């Protein structure tokens, strides 16, 4: 099941792992494995990837980071095939992502000659990129009645869905807001009227999908196997300038 109706689907450059993720989800459909279990698995894969990166096993690091991206898609796919959407899974997924991203840049700082401040700036830029991509993507999903577990504005604690506990939703929502709030506020301030505009075209969403976490991890993996680990932090700082380009295109055309 797609997050968007067929006619509104775009080439998502960050979603290259979706076909394998669907296979994983379908293989787990009739088992006791839950989307939360898959989320935990992608955390473990991400940590293995970071360890291999620090130790200099760059091909292994690339494998585990990309596998993490695949599992990151598989937890949502499993929730859809089992028809068990949950805010618990949605917030746990996002919280896990941002913590792993932070650890990646701390590991890069410790294993390169780059300043900690540049590493933090790159992390901040990477998160802003992902926030813009998710912001526009969720707008489309809500507008065309696709997957609606994610909300355009996460400004209140959602009501727990069937099968999950409200206290879990409350706790994870609090953590989510503490970690993502500043990024959401910045992107909303830069383009607060995006939900009121015309539907975004597929070509624009495909360009913005380069801000998706899957594509970001692919870029990190590529730099690692090419022996360009020192380039990763400068790249994410520089590429963050495209945030303003994409927002400008959205405002001009939509």
TrEMBL record:
<keyword id="KW-0812">Transmembrane</keyword>
<feature type="transmembrane region" description="Helical">
    <location>
        <begin position="203"/>
        <end position="225"/>
    </location>
</feature>
<dbReference type="Pfam" id="PF01066">
    <property type="entry name" value="CDP-OH_P_transf"/>
</dbReference>
<dbReference type="InterPro" id="IPR000462">
    <property type="entry name" value="CDP-OH_P_trans"/>
</dbReference>
<dbReference type="InterPro" id="IPR048254">
    <property type="entry name" value="CDP_ALCOHOL_P_TRANSF_CS"/>
</dbReference>
<keyword id="KW-0808">Transferase</keyword>
<keyword id="KW-0472">Membrane</keyword>
<comment type="similarity">
    <text>Belongs to the CDP-alcohol phosphatidyltransferase class-I family.</text>
</comment>
<feature type="transmembrane region" description="Helical">
    <location>
        <begin position="91"/>
        <end position="110"/>
    </location>
</feature>
<feature type="transmembrane region" description="Helical">
    <location>
        <begin position="231"/>
        <end position="249"/>
    </location>
</feature>
<dbReference type="InterPro" id="IPR043130">
    <property type="entry name" value="CDP-OH_PTrfase_TM_dom"/>
</dbReference>
<feature type="transmembrane region" description="Helical">
    <location>
        <begin position="32"/>
        <end position="51"/>
    </location>
</feature>
<keyword id="KW-1133">Transmembrane helix</keyword>
<protein>
    <submittedName>
        <fullName>CDP-alcohol phosphatidyltransferase family protein</fullName>
    </submittedName>
</protein>
């Amino acid at each position: 099941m797609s997050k968007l109706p067929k006619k509104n689907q775009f080439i998502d450059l960050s979603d290259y792992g979706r076909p394998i993720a669907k296979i994983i989800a379908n293989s787990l459909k009739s088992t006791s494995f839950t989307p939360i279990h898959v989320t935990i698995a992608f955390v473990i894969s991400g940590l293995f990837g970071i360890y291999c990166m620090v130790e200099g096993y760059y091909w292994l690091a690339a494998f585990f980071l990309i596998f993490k991206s695949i599992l990151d898609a598989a937890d949502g796919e499993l929730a859809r095939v089992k028809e068990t959407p949950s805010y618990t899974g949605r917030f746990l997924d996002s919280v896990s992502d941002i913590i792993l991203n932070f650890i990646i840049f701390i590991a890069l700082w410790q294993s390169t000659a780059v300043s900690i401040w540049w590493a933090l700036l790159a992390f901040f830029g990477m998160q802003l990129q992902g926030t813009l991509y998710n912001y526009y993507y969720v707008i489309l999903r809500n507008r065309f009645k696709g997957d609606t577990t994610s909300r355009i504005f996460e400004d209140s604690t959602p009501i727990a869905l069937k099968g999950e506990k409200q206290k879990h939703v409350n706790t994870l929502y609090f953590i989510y807001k503490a970690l993502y709030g500043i990024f959401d506020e910045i992107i909303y301030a830069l383009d607060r009227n995006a939900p009121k505009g015309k539907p975004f075209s597929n070509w624009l969403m495909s360009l913005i999908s380069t801000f998706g976490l899957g594509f970001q991890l692919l870029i990190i993996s590529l730099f690692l196997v090419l022996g360009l680990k020192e380039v990763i932090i400068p790249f994410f700082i520089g590429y963050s300038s495209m945030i303003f380009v994409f927002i400008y295109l959205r405002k001009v055309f939509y």
